[in-house]
Amino acid sequence: MKPPPFDYVAAATVDEALEALADTSVETRPLAGGQSLVPMLNFRLAVPERLVDLNGIDELSRIEETEDGGLRLGAMVRHRQLEHDPFIARRMPLLSEATPFIAHPQIRSRGTVGGSVAHADPAAELPAVLLTLGARVRIARRSLGGEPGSRVERTVGLGEFFLGPFFSALEPDELLTAIEMPPSAPGEGTAFDEVARRRGDYALAGVAARVRLNSGGVCDEAAISLVNGGATPCLMREAARTLVGQEPTPEVIEATAAACAATSEPAADMHASEAYRRHLIQVLTRRVVSRAADRVLT
Amino acid sequence: MATAEKYVGGGVPRKEDPKLLTGQGQFLEGLTLPGMLHAALVRSPHGSARINSVDVSAAAAAEGVVAALSGADLADEWAAGLPMAWPVTDDIRIPDHWPVAQDVVRYVGDAVAVVVATSRNAALDAAELVEVDYEVLEAVVDVEAALADGAPRVHESFDDNKSYTWALTNGDVDAAFAKADVVVAERYTQPRLIPNAMEPRAVVAQSVPSTGDFTVWSTTQIPHVAKVLFALTLGIPEGQIRVIAPPDVGGGFGSKLNVYAEEALCIALARRLGKPVKWVAGRSEGYLATIHGRDQVQEIEIAATSDGKILGYRVHILAAMGAYLQLVAPGVPLLGAFLYCGCYGGEAYHFECTGVFTNTTPTDAYRGAGRPEATYAIERVIDALAREVGVDAAEIRRRNFLPAGDMVQSPGGLAFDSADYEPALDRALELLDYDGFRSDQAERRAGGGRRQTGVGFSSYVEICGLAPSQVLASLKYGAGGWDAATVRMLPTGKAEVVTGSSPHGQGHVTSWSQIAADALGIPYEDVTVLHGDTHVAPHGMNTYGSRSLAVAGVAVHNACGRVVDKARGLAAHLLEVAPEDLEYEAGTFSVKGVPDRTKSMPELAFAAWTAHSLPEDSEPGLEASCVYDPPNFTFPFGTHVAVVEVDTETGAVDLVRYIAVDDCGPVINPVIVDGQVHGGVAQGIAAALYEEATYAEDGTLETASMVNYLVPSAAEFPSFETDRTVTPSTSNPMGVKGIGEAGTIGSAPAVINAIVDALSHLGVTDVPMPASPERVWRAIRAAQGGEE
Q: What pTM was computed for the model?
C-alpha cells in the first residue's frame, strides 16, 4: 500500500517543530527515523493530517555528557550511533550490547532513540534498556500564549512515561527532545539478551539487567526490565528487590528469575504463547543477571 | 558430432548478472505505455460471504478514475472461467472460478471489484471508496475440519468439500504388511507456505482496437501456455494475442506458473477501455492473491523386517486446494505420489490423496511441488524406523537403497533413469566426519549442558524433466511435456538461439549460450538467446518443475546438432569432398588427411546467407529447430545433512552446518548449479524452521505481511557445503537432469531429523514444522512427561 495524502513540514529547528505541533487543530505527528511510522502510514494504520520532519534539526542529534556526568542522547540520535560510538561503549556498555539486537543495520541507520521511546512499543529493545539504566525523558512544547520560540520543558522519569501499548505521557503538542541517563556507578554490571525467531525480529522476549555489587560482593542495587514482557516496556521492581542485599549466587538468581517470570505479564501472539514467553523470561533473566554480576566480578 | 567442451562444465560468469547488478534489469514495473491506465482491486476481507451489493459510485466519481466495475459488471467479458488444466480424475469437482467474484467470495483476497484510474495511486485511493455489502458466512480453513460432517461448504453446489480422490497401488500391500516384523506409522503436517519471489506479480495488457490484437506483458513463467489460456478465457482468437514475459522476471518458484485473475482482468479492461491497463501487486496483496504451496496432512506407514528392510508403504494424504482450483493444483500431490518410497526398495506401495476445498488462497505448485512433501514423509519415517529397529540413521538408508543401475524399478511404479545412491551418502558422511560428529555429540550429552547437537540425513530422489507427453496424458495433464529450440547462424558468424523455456532467474541465457557455443565452435559471447516472447519464439512449454535444461536445453543441443549437420553438407560442397570425408571439431570442418583445407562455422554461415553456391536441394540459411519430447523423466538424487545445536532451555535451534551432495548428472555451469542448490536449500530450511502461513477461523490470513510470515535471511544460514556426484541420466542425450528444486526437496527433513536427533536422548521423536523455539520447547516438555 501507500500512505494516504498528508501535509509535510520540514522543521529546521526545535522551535519550528514545536510551532507546528502547537496547532492541534491539525492532527500532526513528528517524523523521526520513520521506521515505525512510515510502515504504519503505508498500511494506513496511522492517518495523520500532517507530518513534521525532524531530520533537519541538528541540535537533536547530539550525544553529550550531562552536568552530573551522565549521558544525554538527542532524540534524533540514530541506533547506529549508539552501536558504534566508543564513548557509549565505555560509558554505557549496555547500550552497545543491546543495540545490535534492534532490527537490521538499514533500520538502525535510520531509526532514532527518541522515535523508539516515543513509539512506546513494549516489543522494542531500547525502551527496556533505557529503563534499566534509570533514564528520564526531556519533553518540550511551545508555551501557550507565549512569544513564538518560547518553550515549556519538563522531564519525566522513563518509568512514568510508558502508559500503555504504544501510549506514553507525551501530549499531542509535545516533542520528546532528549533522553538522559545518570552516570553509572562503580561496581555496576549490565547485560542484555533476547530470543527472536529471526535475526533482527522483534524479540519473543528479552531481558536487560543492571546490578551494582559492593566490595563484599553483595548486591546494593538492581534493575531488570523486559522486552515483550507486558503491555508496556516494564521495569521489574519486585523481582529486582530479591537481589538486593544478597550475593548473586545461582540460587538467589534463580529466585529472581522465577519472580521476574511470575510478575511478568506477557501477551500471546502467533509467534509465542504466554506460557512460553514467561518461560523465556525466566531463562533469560537467569542468564543476564548472572552475566551482569560476572562482569562486575571479573 | 564431436563437441569440444570449452564452455560446458565451466563456471563462466552469468550473462544475466551485469545488468541485474547495475540496476539495468528490465522488470515489468518499469514498463510505461502511452495512455496507460492502472488497475487496483477491491478484495474480500471475509473468508466466506455472499455479496449482497457492490456500490462503485463513489469510486467512479473519484479524481482520476476512468472505470469502477464489479464482478457482475464484468461477467460478459469471460468466455470461460479461469483455467484449470490438470483434472486428475474423471469425477473431480471443478468449481467456477471467475476473475472477479460475482455472487460469493470464498477467501480473503477474492476480488470483488476493480477500479481503473490514470495513476496507480488514484486507483488505490478510489478502491477504498467501493462499498460492498456482504452477508458473512461461516468459513472453514483446515483440511480435516473441511471434511468433517456438517462443515461449512466452500462451494454450495457441491455436497461436501472434497474435490477428488486419486489412488495408486503397486503390488500386494496387505501381504507386505502382514509379513512385516515392524510397522511404523507416522503423521506429519506440511505447513502452508507463501512463495516469495523477489519481484511481485505484475501485468500490462494493451489492445489495438482497430485490429483486435492484444499484447500482454506478464511476470509469468509460462508465456506460451498463458497465451493459449488467455485466448480461451477471453474469447480472443489465439493468433491475435502476443504474450511477453519481460526480459527479467524476478523469480517465480511456481507462483508465476499460473493464469491469474489479474492477467485476465487487465486484458478484459484493455479491451473494454481501449487503452493499456497495468496492475502491479503489492507484497501483502500478493500474499492474498498469489498461489500458496503445501498445506497437506500426511499419514505414512511402512512395513519392515526386524533388521530394517522396508517391505511396503501405505500413504494417505489430504491436500488443501484452497477455495478454487488453480492451474495445476490438483496434480501437485501427484508429482509426489510416486516418491513416498524415496530412493528405497520394497515390494508393495499404496498411495491415496484427497484434494480438499477450504476458504483459503488457492494452492498450486511451489518449488518442488509434491516432491518436498513426499521426501519429507519418507525421510522422517525412515528415521522413525531406524529408532524402532535400533539401526543407525545412515545405515538404514544404505540398507534400503535401490540397487545402482539404469532404469531401476521403484516400488512407486516408476523406472528411475540412473540410480547410484551410495556414493552421495558416502561423500556426505565424509564431509561431515560422521564418527567425529557422533563423538562430539556423546561428549555433549555426557556433559549435560544446555546446548545439545544433532545430525539429520535426507537421501532424496526426485522427478524432473517434465515430461514424456504420453505419460502426462496418462496422468490427465492438460498439456504436452515437450519443448522447442531454434538455432540460427547469423551472417556475421554469430548464433541466435530461440528457446521455448522462459527463464526468470535460472540463467538460461548463460547455460544455453554455453551449450550452443561448444556445439557450434564459436565464442560464448557470440551467442544470443531469445526467450519469453510468443512472437519471437513460437513454440514453448516454458519453465517449471526443473524441466528447462533436461527438455528445452536438450532441444537447444539437438538443434545445434542439426545446424552442424547442415553446415557439413555446405562445407563438403564448398570443399568439393564428400560429407563423410570431413572432420568436425570446435566449429571447423577439415578434410580428413588434409588439415589445412577447412571451413569454419562463421565462413559457412556467411556462405549460407549469400547463397551464392549451395549444394543441390539445399536452402539458403543455416538454421535448424528441434521440438524435444523426452522418453522418460529424469530422477536427480543426493544426500543432504544438517547439523544443529539446540538450546534445550529455550528451544532455539541453530543450524550450524549444512552439507548437500547432489547428483544432477553432468553440470553445464557449476556456479548456477551451486546457486540453485543454495537457494533451494534456503527455501527448504525456511519451511523447516521459519515459514508457515496461518489462517484464523474466519478465514483471515494471519501472516499477511513479511512481519509475520518469516522468510529467513542469510543471517539465519551457515555457509552451505556443496558437492556433487555425477551419474548421467539415460533419459536424454546430454545426460542432464535438473537442479532447480533439489535443494528444497532434500533439506526440510534433514533439518527436522537433526533436531529430533539432538533431543533423542530426552525422548523427543517429533517436532512439527516449522520448528519454532516454542515448538521445540514443548516437544522437550512433552517427552519429559510435562504438559505439551
A: 0.97
